[in-house]
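Box S2. Input/output pair 1.
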Amino acid sequence: MSFIFDGLKKLEQEKGCIPSPDYLKDKFLKQIPPSSELLQGDFLKNLSLKNLSLEKVTFTLIELVMVIVILGILAVSAIPRFADLSGDAEDRTVQGITSALNAAAAIKYAESAIAGNAAYPAGGAALLLAANITGVTLTSSGGGTITGNVNGQPHTWTFDSNTGEVTDDI
């Protein structure tokens, strides 16, 4: 059995790695006489890297510290990219409400055109009823001004009943 370990040491020095169990079986078991007790029983089944390794392979403390430092650098560079996403989400919500109000104005115009009286809604209140936006409380103070809070921040939308266009304050 010592010739297997001697051969394994030689291969580690030459190749710089531990060879696979299949390679070891092909290389070294050919040297064992067929009548040998090594070939009897479960020896071949138990032949594996775990059983043949000469020393345990571990990471050094310096390698672990370097991995932690690299992960720290990645974390420091990635956190600012995701830290201020709430502002972007608020802007996209306001733009989504603007799009919904514009779509409602177009639908109301189409409905009135089918009825024979093509016109946009008269003001913000009629537009809000048509839009049916949920999740955000919007109010119309008369005319074409619509106000509401998105993520606790006040926003204003302006509706032009002549052109049917809604603009936001972003």
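Box S3. Input/output pair 2.
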Amino acid sequence: MAPPASSSRSAGIPDVSSVPDHGDNGAVIEVRTSDLHDRGVFATKDIRKGTLIVETPMLVLPSSEWKHISKTTFAHYVFEYGKGTAFAVGPVSFLNHSYTPNARYWIDEDERTIEIVAIRRIKKGDEVTINYNADPDDDSPLWFDVD
């Protein structure tokens, strides 16, 4: 739950008041076991092309901490962010990679948020995937082997 608008916020903590409400007190996505890689994000209802699936705050990690973070499991759940990295709060960090994704992401460094938008229709039960290269059409090799 976001703090009241009148409350003060600590520097560096993203404002979560803009996270979209998808109605009926339920999200359009959920995290569960994936055939692609351990866990993934799945549609809980049909999602139309162009739909904002989720917007979530990012926790910016200082560049000086990467040498420590890179040695942990946490390193598998971060995004490149400017000259450093950031962790997307919530299910976004569980999105798996695909060279034929059904969603894409945009990072707003000023607002410290990440948006996930459907780039084609996603059926209820389908796994929501993004291209880790940011551009859905970019088939450049990644830092890990893609099955």
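Caption for Box S3: Strands lie at 29-33, 39-43, 52-61, 78-81, 84-88, 96-97, 103-108, 113-118, 127-130. The chain is about 5% helix and 30% strand.
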